[in-house]
Specification:
- The protein is of the alpha+beta class.
- It is 44% helix and 17% strand.
- The chain has 2 domains: 90 residues, Roll (Nuclear Transport Factor 2, Chain: A), CATH 3.10.450.40; 112 residues, no CATH class.
- The strands form 4 sheets. A 3-stranded antiparallel beta sheet has the order 1-2-3, with no helix packed on it.
- The longest helix is centred in the middle third of the chain and has 17 residues.
- It is globular.
Protein backbone atom coordinates (compact mmCIF):
# COMPACT_ATOMS: atom_id res chain seq x y z
CA UNK A 1 0.00 0.00 0.00
CA UNK A 2 1.46 3.37 -0.99
CA UNK A 3 1.83 6.23 1.51
CA UNK A 4 -0.99 8.34 0.03
CA UNK A 5 -3.53 5.52 0.19
CA UNK A 6 -2.44 4.71 3.74
CA UNK A 7 -2.99 8.32 4.79
CA UNK A 8 -6.45 8.34 3.18
CA UNK A 9 -7.37 5.23 5.16
CA UNK A 10 -6.03 6.73 8.39
CA UNK A 11 -7.54 10.21 8.08
CA UNK A 12 -10.78 9.37 6.28
CA UNK A 13 -12.27 9.12 2.80
CA UNK A 14 -12.83 12.86 2.34
CA UNK A 15 -11.28 16.17 3.37
CA UNK A 16 -13.94 17.00 5.97
CA UNK A 17 -13.40 13.67 7.76
CA UNK A 18 -9.64 14.18 7.62
CA UNK A 19 -9.89 17.66 9.14
CA UNK A 20 -11.97 16.34 12.03
CA UNK A 21 -9.51 13.49 12.55
CA UNK A 22 -6.39 15.68 12.68
CA UNK A 23 -8.14 18.43 14.67
CA UNK A 24 -9.17 15.87 17.27
CA UNK A 25 -5.66 14.48 17.40
CA UNK A 26 -4.11 17.92 17.99
CA UNK A 27 -6.65 18.92 20.63
CA UNK A 28 -5.27 16.14 22.80
CA UNK A 29 -1.73 17.54 22.64
CA UNK A 30 -0.53 19.91 25.37
CA UNK A 31 0.98 23.26 24.40
CA UNK A 32 4.76 23.27 23.97
CA UNK A 33 5.04 19.51 24.51
CA UNK A 34 7.21 17.83 21.81
CA UNK A 35 5.67 14.78 20.17
CA UNK A 36 6.16 12.37 17.29
CA UNK A 37 3.45 11.09 14.96
CA UNK A 38 4.19 8.90 11.93
CA UNK A 39 1.11 9.80 9.86
CA UNK A 40 1.50 13.55 10.53
CA UNK A 41 5.14 13.29 9.50
CA UNK A 42 4.07 11.69 6.21
CA UNK A 43 1.40 14.39 5.80
CA UNK A 44 4.10 17.08 5.90
CA UNK A 45 5.42 15.73 2.60
CA UNK A 46 2.17 16.96 1.01
CA UNK A 47 2.74 20.61 1.90
CA UNK A 48 1.70 22.64 -1.19
CA UNK A 49 4.82 24.80 -1.25
CA UNK A 50 7.61 22.57 0.02
CA UNK A 51 8.17 19.11 1.45
CA UNK A 52 8.84 19.37 5.17
CA UNK A 53 11.08 16.50 6.24
CA UNK A 54 14.11 15.68 8.38
CA UNK A 55 12.80 17.62 11.36
CA UNK A 56 13.16 16.63 15.01
CA UNK A 57 9.62 16.73 16.39
CA UNK A 58 6.20 18.35 16.35
CA UNK A 59 4.79 20.70 18.99
CA UNK A 60 1.60 22.68 19.37
CA UNK A 61 2.51 26.28 20.20
CA UNK A 62 0.68 29.56 20.75
CA UNK A 63 1.88 31.66 17.80
CA UNK A 64 1.87 35.49 18.00
CA UNK A 65 0.32 37.93 17.38
CA UNK A 66 -3.00 36.22 18.18
CA UNK A 67 -1.47 33.37 20.24
CA UNK A 68 -3.62 30.86 18.42
CA UNK A 69 -2.42 27.25 18.92
CA UNK A 70 -0.65 26.11 15.75
CA UNK A 71 1.24 23.02 14.67
CA UNK A 72 4.99 23.58 14.47
CA UNK A 73 8.04 21.52 13.60
CA UNK A 74 11.47 21.95 15.14
CA UNK A 75 14.32 21.58 12.67
CA UNK A 76 17.80 20.08 13.38
CA UNK A 77 19.20 23.62 13.83
CA UNK A 78 16.42 24.24 16.43
CA UNK A 79 14.56 26.64 14.16
CA UNK A 80 10.80 26.43 14.76
CA UNK A 81 8.56 26.46 11.68
CA UNK A 82 4.78 26.88 11.77
CA UNK A 83 3.05 24.59 9.28
CA UNK A 84 -0.51 24.54 7.98
CA UNK A 85 -1.73 20.98 8.36
CA UNK A 86 -5.00 22.05 6.71
CA UNK A 87 -3.18 23.06 3.52
CA UNK A 88 -1.30 19.76 3.62
CA UNK A 89 -4.63 17.90 3.82
CA UNK A 90 -6.09 19.94 0.96
CA UNK A 91 -3.15 18.96 -1.19
CA UNK A 92 -3.40 15.31 -0.13
CA UNK A 93 -7.08 15.18 -1.12
CA UNK A 94 -6.63 17.08 -4.39
CA UNK A 95 -8.34 20.22 -3.10
CA UNK A 96 -5.36 22.53 -3.27
CA UNK A 97 -6.01 25.79 -5.13
CA UNK A 98 -2.75 27.79 -5.52
CA UNK A 99 -4.55 30.99 -6.54
CA UNK A 100 -6.93 30.80 -3.57
CA UNK A 101 -4.03 30.00 -1.24
CA UNK A 102 -2.09 33.05 -2.46
CA UNK A 103 -5.11 35.24 -1.84
CA UNK A 104 -5.48 33.91 1.71
CA UNK A 105 -1.78 34.43 2.43
CA UNK A 106 -1.94 38.03 1.23
CA UNK A 107 -4.97 38.71 3.45
CA UNK A 108 -3.11 37.17 6.39
CA UNK A 109 -0.14 39.45 5.70
CA UNK A 110 -2.41 42.52 5.75
CA UNK A 111 -3.92 41.31 9.03
CA UNK A 112 -0.45 40.84 10.45
CA UNK A 113 0.50 44.39 9.42
CA UNK A 114 -2.26 45.95 11.55
CA UNK A 115 -2.01 43.47 14.45
CA UNK A 116 0.20 45.88 16.41
CA UNK A 117 -1.16 49.15 15.02
CA UNK A 118 -1.93 51.88 17.60
CA UNK A 119 -5.68 51.41 17.19
CA UNK A 120 -5.54 47.62 17.55
CA UNK A 121 -3.29 47.85 20.63
CA UNK A 122 -5.67 50.38 22.16
CA UNK A 123 -8.67 48.14 21.41
CA UNK A 124 -7.06 45.08 23.04
CA UNK A 125 -6.27 47.14 26.14
CA UNK A 126 -9.79 48.60 26.20
CA UNK A 127 -11.78 45.39 25.76
CA UNK A 128 -9.77 42.48 27.20
CA UNK A 129 -12.16 40.57 29.43
CA UNK A 130 -15.53 42.31 29.58
CA UNK A 131 -19.09 42.44 28.32
CA UNK A 132 -19.66 41.36 24.71
CA UNK A 133 -21.06 44.29 22.74
CA UNK A 134 -23.49 41.96 21.00
CA UNK A 135 -24.88 39.44 23.52
CA UNK A 136 -23.57 41.20 26.67
CA UNK A 137 -22.03 38.00 28.02
CA UNK A 138 -18.90 38.59 30.11
CA UNK A 139 -15.99 36.81 28.44
CA UNK A 140 -12.55 37.20 26.94
CA UNK A 141 -13.33 39.49 24.03
CA UNK A 142 -12.13 39.31 20.44
CA UNK A 143 -11.52 42.49 18.46
CA UNK A 144 -14.00 42.81 15.59
CA UNK A 145 -14.50 45.40 12.86
CA UNK A 146 -17.89 47.05 13.32
CA UNK A 147 -19.69 48.74 10.40
CA UNK A 148 -17.32 48.03 7.52
CA UNK A 149 -15.74 44.55 7.92
CA UNK A 150 -11.99 44.06 7.61
CA UNK A 151 -12.37 42.63 4.09
CA UNK A 152 -14.21 45.73 2.85
CA UNK A 153 -11.68 48.11 4.39
CA UNK A 154 -8.85 46.18 2.73
CA UNK A 155 -10.57 46.16 -0.66
CA UNK A 156 -11.19 49.92 -0.49
CA UNK A 157 -7.53 50.50 0.42
CA UNK A 158 -6.31 48.34 -2.45
CA UNK A 159 -8.68 50.05 -4.89
CA UNK A 160 -7.36 53.46 -3.81
CA UNK A 161 -3.80 52.21 -4.40
CA UNK A 162 -4.69 50.68 -7.79
CA UNK A 163 -3.83 47.18 -6.54
CA UNK A 164 -5.51 43.80 -6.19
CA UNK A 165 -4.86 40.93 -3.79
CA UNK A 166 -3.27 38.85 -6.54
CA UNK A 167 -0.73 41.60 -7.33
CA UNK A 168 0.59 42.07 -3.77
CA UNK A 169 3.86 40.30 -2.93
CA UNK A 170 4.32 38.54 0.41
CA UNK A 171 7.42 37.52 2.34
CA UNK A 172 7.17 33.74 2.88
CA UNK A 173 10.51 33.27 4.68
CA UNK A 174 8.80 32.96 8.08
CA UNK A 175 5.40 32.85 9.69
CA UNK A 176 3.36 34.90 10.17
CA UNK A 177 3.67 36.02 6.54
CA UNK A 178 4.37 39.72 6.05
CA UNK A 179 3.98 42.22 3.23
CA UNK A 180 7.13 42.51 1.15
CA UNK A 181 6.70 46.29 0.79
CA UNK A 182 7.26 48.08 4.11
CA UNK A 183 5.93 51.27 2.52
CA UNK A 184 2.66 49.56 1.59
CA UNK A 185 2.38 48.10 5.10
CA UNK A 186 2.89 51.52 6.69
CA UNK A 187 0.28 53.13 4.42
CA UNK A 188 -2.19 50.35 5.19
CA UNK A 189 -1.74 50.83 8.95
CA UNK A 190 -2.48 54.55 8.65
CA UNK A 191 -5.54 53.90 6.46
CA UNK A 192 -6.88 51.13 8.68
CA UNK A 193 -6.53 53.08 11.91
CA UNK A 194 -8.23 56.12 10.39
CA UNK A 195 -11.18 54.17 8.96
CA UNK A 196 -11.74 51.18 11.25
CA UNK A 197 -14.40 51.10 13.96
CA UNK A 198 -13.60 48.35 16.46
CA UNK A 199 -15.69 46.51 19.03
CA UNK A 200 -15.22 43.68 21.50
CA UNK A 201 -17.19 40.47 20.92
CA UNK A 202 -17.21 37.08 22.59
CA UNK A 203 -15.88 34.15 20.55
CA UNK A 204 -19.37 32.94 19.58
CA UNK A 205 -20.64 36.32 18.36
CA UNK A 206 -17.38 37.06 16.57
CA UNK A 207 -17.52 33.74 14.70
CA UNK A 208 -21.20 34.04 13.77
CA UNK A 209 -20.82 37.61 12.54
CA UNK A 210 -17.89 36.90 10.21
CA UNK A 211 -17.70 39.47 7.41
CA UNK A 212 -21.47 39.92 7.23
CA UNK A 213 -21.58 38.13 3.88
CA UNK A 214 -19.00 40.42 2.26
CA UNK A 215 -16.48 38.71 -0.03
CA UNK A 216 -13.11 40.02 -1.14
CA UNK A 217 -12.76 41.35 -4.66
CA UNK A 218 -10.13 39.53 -6.74
Amino acid sequence: MDATRRLHETFGKCLSHARKHVSGLLKKKALDAPFQHEELRELMLHHPRRKIKDFLYFAKRAVPPYNKPCLTVTMPDRAVITVSWINCLKNLYGKNDPAKNKKQWVVQAFREAISTSPKMVEAREKFGIGKCQCCEKVAKLHIDHDGKPFAMLLDEFLEAKGLSLTKVTVNFTAKPYTLMSKKLAAEWIVYHDAEAKLEGLCRTCNSSKGSGGYRHKV
